[in-house]
Specification:
two-stranded antiparallel sheet; 11-stranded mixed sheet; Peroxisomal Thiolase, Chain A, domain 1
Length: 426
């Protein structure tokens, strides 16, 4: 194998900077301290009235100001904070001159209820609002600004301008695997030799009444509102759905040779990526786990490893009855009998499901697990599911020597992306 290249002759991809924001706090230090202490960031929703809603809790990020308050502005603010931490740690490029492209996972964007109501009021009608009346109401400068705000590419454009990334920024939304997909795209661009560095971000600030109602109609959310911190219970027999969360994470990815040449500190490597689509259903994953199994196998093979080389699995672990069973079966199918002794835990038990951001947030925690030699727990694991025989690192963090992590991201609509992180190149 050539120096600084993997077994397939591709440039090794190193991580030289990381940043994260979740309901547990801003920055790696606060988040890592909280998540290894088993502390939950899930709480009662206070930003809007929850009367009549079946689910009244979430892992909202309430300490980041966003004006006007809506998913795009909060997502942008959190992404900016995470990227500032990551780029600052990497010490790459000069201010506002990042030497690579931006790949950013953002939530699906549409105008939210407050803006819709204001637009309808501006149309000046008491009955049904026609399209022509909406167009007249949208003619003011105020609504022109809102139009830009709710364009899908706006967040990426603003982040690219702020950090001076090169080329056209790539916005993507592949459901709950989006954050992992952003990292995968950055890795693949570096492997192809198109760039020496990439900024990969996942961000999501979309806890609002409409999103809660939509997920509730899918019977996807936990309704165990009291106590809030006890609702997310991945792999437990009494799990009843996921809890929405918010957050952002950013990773600076670099060609290993480029990073060494400039004297960067290497935080770890993205050694393998696996992706498999699933046309089984728009919201459900295939119950036999075939696409998830394929994605896991592809990620491990892409890393030049075997299942026996994996030390820990950062689970997708949403706490829905269907996902946790499917993930358990999929991991067991790949790992075989060894699965019973491979630790697997879910960060979502503490921060909720950060949706579009999840794959990136959990990538940061996976790399911190390697660096710190400490595996975050799956909290609220008090009623084991006899059908899921996994070592879920129950309730308390565990010290362990971890060199290779598999991180799973399985999204609605069958979007499956898995990543392998390592401490050292193979």
């Amino acid at each position: 194998m050539a120096p600084h290249r993997d077994k397939l002759g591709r440039p090794l991809v190193a991580v030289t900077g990381m940043g994260v924001v979740t309901s547990l706090g801003q920055g790696k230090a606060d988040n890592w301290a909280a998540i290894t202490a088993g502390r939950s960031g899930i709480h009662r929703i206070e930003r809007f009235a929850t009367d009549g809603l079946r689910t009244t809790i979430a892992g909202t990020v309430d300490f980041v100001p966003a004006e006007p308050f809506c998913a795009p502005t909060l997502s942008e603010r959190m992404a900016t904070l995470a990227a500032e931490e990551a780029v600052g740690q990497a010490a790459i490029g000069s201010a506002g001159d990042f030497p690579g492209a931006l790949f950013i996972a953002v939530p699906p964007v549409e105008m939210e209820w407050p803006q819709r109501e204001a637009l309808a009021a501006a149309a000046g009608t008491d009955g049904d609002v026609t399209y022509a009346e909406l167009l007249r109401g949208a003619g003011s400068g105020r609504f022109k600004a809102w139009h830009e705000l709710f364009l899908f590419g706006t967040v990426a454009d603003h982040i690219a301008e702020r950090f001076g990334t090169k080329g056209s920024p790539i916005s993507l939304s592949t459901a709950c695997s989006s954050g992992a997909t952003a990292i995968q795209l950055g890795v693949e661009a570096i492997r192809r030799g198109e760039m020496r560095a990439a900024l990969a971000i996942g961000t999501d600030g979309s806890v609002n009444p409409e999103s809660l109602i939509r997920f509730s109609l899918l019977s996807a959310l936990s309704t165990q509102n009291d106590p809030p911190e006890g609702a997310a219970k991945p792999f437990s027999k009494n799990r009843d759905g996921f809890v929405m969360g918010e957050g952002a994470a950013a990773l600076v990815l670099e060609d290993y040779e480029h990073a060494l040449a400039r004297g960067a500190t290497i935080l770890g490597f993205v050694l393998g990526c696996g992706e498999k689509g699933d046309g089984f259903h728009r919201t459900r994953s295939s119950p036999d786990g075939a696409p998830a199994i394929a994605a896991i196998r592809e990620a491990i093979a892409d890393a030049g490893l075997t299942p026996d080389d994996i030390d820990y699995i950062n689970a997708h672990g949403t706490s829905t009855p269907e996902n946790d069973k499917m993930e358990s079966l999929s991991c067991a199918a790949v790992m075989g009998e060894r699965m019973a002794s491979v630790p697997i835990s879910s960060n979502k038990s503490m921060i909720g499901h950060t949706l579009t951001a999840a794959g990136a947030v959990e990538a940061v925690f996976s790399l911190l697990t390697i660096a710190e030699g400490r595996i975050p727990p799956t909290i609220n694991y008090n009623v084991p599911d006899p059908a899921i025989t996994l070592d879920v690192v129950p309730n308390k963090a565990r010290d362990a020597r971890v060199g290779r992590v598999l991180s799973n991201s399985f999204g609605f609509g069958g979007q499956n992306t898995c990543l392998v992180f390592t401490a050292e190149p193979v």
